[in-house]
Amino acid sequence: MDPELAIEPLTAERFAAFGDVIALSEMPDFVINQGYCNRFHDLARLESLGAGARLGISLFQSQRRTSPYMLDMMERHPLGSQAFLPMSMDPFLVTVAPDEGGRPGRPLAFMTAPGQGVNYHAGTWHGVLTALQGPGLFAVIDRVAGAGENLEEYWFETPYSVAWS
Questions:
Q1: Which residues are CB-contacts of 20 (< 8 A; sequence separation ≥ 6)?
Q2: What sign results for the dihedral spanned by CA atoms 46, 96, 76, 67?
Q3: Which of 28, 38, 127 is nearest to 75 (CA)?
Q4: What is the pLDDT of residue 103?
Q5: Is the pTM of this model over 0.85?
Q6: Per residue in 127-144, is it b (16+ CB within 10 Å) or e — as a string?
Q7: Which domains does the chain have, with CATH numbers?
Q8: Does position 1 have pLDDT exceeding 80, yes or no?
Q9: Whole-angstrom Cα distance, residue 10 to residue 116?
Q10: How far apart are CA 101 and CA 95, in angstroms?
Q11: Among 47, 129, 104, 50, CA closest to 81
């Protein structure tokens, strides 16, 4: 196993198996508010599964991570999606992995472009919030109530190294 992960630019096509890229497109879906506001509509599939489930909006303030970052743990939320929307134009590191028999497979690392956010689909293995400027402030939309356990963690025997410049 090669413990180093290459970082790719975050694109909707490359990220589609894991979730949604939340970003402006070249053209808005609608122009609203008497022509003063562009609406980029329905950018993520938000999920909240189970009886009494409810989505909420939270703010996360994350300390800056430095390179190289050691990816030693991934988590997933089987009962709901989780969206991270940066409240600054600073890029952040996104790590995801395919599911391989109930544990994460080899992770992928993505660097967001300024202004991009992500929405992890329910059950997607992902790394923790990794701000590259600090403190990073993010709006987070996820399942905040409902029956069932909505957090699984997996700790790697050998951490992966992710470096950027």
A1: 12, 43, 44, 45, 83, 118, 119, 121
A2: negative
A3: 127
A4: 98
A5: yes
A6: bebbbbeeebebebbbbe
A7: 4-162 (2.60.120.480)
A8: no
A9: 8
A10: 19
A11: 47
